């Protein structure tokens, strides 16, 4: 597996494709939420691209997930706080797959099938394994890999995408909640796989957003920019 997987689209090309929508939606005001979501997502993806020569996998994964979070994050207007992560991103990817008439996401999952299977075969990215780490639970944790073969045949893209992102999310939580050492040696292989996967999925998600999601209602924006600059 290569050390660096190049994205099919860069932030520059994605922003260029988005520009007509940005200008059209911008006529509704500077605080148009769909435009803000895209801008925030690209800003974090761009950070990873610009620091490719000074690769920092821990920070790269956090940045890539923030980029994703900018798209899926929802505000609970009753509780006045963000909707829980897992609930938000699962609903989001389900909706994106339904919108994806071009097949960007299924193409990315198919092209990088080996990477997908390696993530599902990695017991260290499984919540079930860590409930009782041992050889028996490691085997159970890897069952998703065997299931994925039939998911590909049956084109069950939601099962594949949800399971993959659940593995990446586990690594993200491990880092963010202080359960990993920055630059540590123990989780490098798992972390690389997660970073490579997000580098492939985010451009695909942004292409769906551009081509099929510009006029969708994406829900209340978390922490919108305020006119007083806060």
Question: How would you portray this structure in words?
Answer:
With 230 residues, the protein is an all-alpha fold. The protein has one domain (11-212). It is built from 11 helices and 2 strands. The protein has helices spanning 11-26, 33-50, 57-72, 85-99, 104-111, 113-120, 127-131, 135-141, 143-153, 157-176, 188-212; strands spanning 75-76, 81-82. It has a two-stranded antiparallel sheet. β1 and β2 form a beta hairpin. α1 (11-26) packs parallel to α11. The longest helix is centred in the C-terminal third of the chain and has 25 residues, at 188-212. It is globular, with a radius of gyration of 18 Å. Mean pLDDT is 89; it is low at 1-7.
Key traits:
230 residues, mainly alpha, 2 strands, 2% strand
Main sheet: strands, sense, barrel: 2 strands, antiparallel
Structural class: mainly alpha
Net shape? globular
Segments where pLDDT lies below 50 for 5+ residues? Answer: 1-7
How confident is the prediction overall: mean pLDDT?
A: 89
Order of helices and strands: HHHEEHHHHHHHH
Q: Span between N and C termini? A: 44 Å
Portion in helices: 55-70%
The total strand number stands at: 2
* Amount of beta strand: under 5%
The radius of gyration is 18 Å
Q: Give the number of helices.
A: 11
Strand line-up in the sheet with most strands: 1-2
- In total, the number of domains comes to 1
């Amino acid at each position: 597996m290569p050390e660096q997987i190049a994205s099919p689209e860069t932030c520059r090309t994605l922003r260029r494709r988005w520009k007509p929508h940005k200008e059209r939606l911008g006529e509704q005001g500077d605080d148009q939420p769909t435009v803000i979501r895209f801008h925030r997502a690209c800003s974090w993806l761009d950070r990873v691209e610009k620091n490719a020569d000074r690769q920092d996998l821990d920070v790269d994964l956090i940045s890539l997930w923030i980029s994703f979070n900018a798209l899926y994050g929802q505000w609970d207007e009753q509780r006045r706080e963000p909707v829980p992560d897992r609930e938000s991103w699962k609903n989001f990817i389900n909706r994106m797959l339904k919108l994806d008439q071009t097949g960007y996401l299924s193409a990315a999952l198919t092209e990088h099938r080996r990477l997908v299977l390696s993530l599902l075969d990695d017991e260290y990215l499984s919540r079930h394994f860590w409930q009782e780490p041992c050889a028996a639970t490691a085997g159970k944790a890897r069952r998703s890999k065997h299931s994925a073969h039939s998911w590909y045949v049956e084109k069950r893209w939601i099962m594949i995408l949800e399971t993959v992102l659940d593995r990446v999310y586990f690594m993200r939580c491990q880092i963010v909640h202080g359960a990993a050492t920055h630059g540590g040696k123990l989780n490098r292989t798992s972390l690389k796989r997660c970073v490579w996967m997000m580098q492939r999925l985010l451009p695909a998600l942004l292409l769906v957003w551009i081509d099929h999601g510009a006029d969708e209602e994406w829900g209340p924006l978390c922490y919108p920019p305020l006119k007083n600059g806060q």
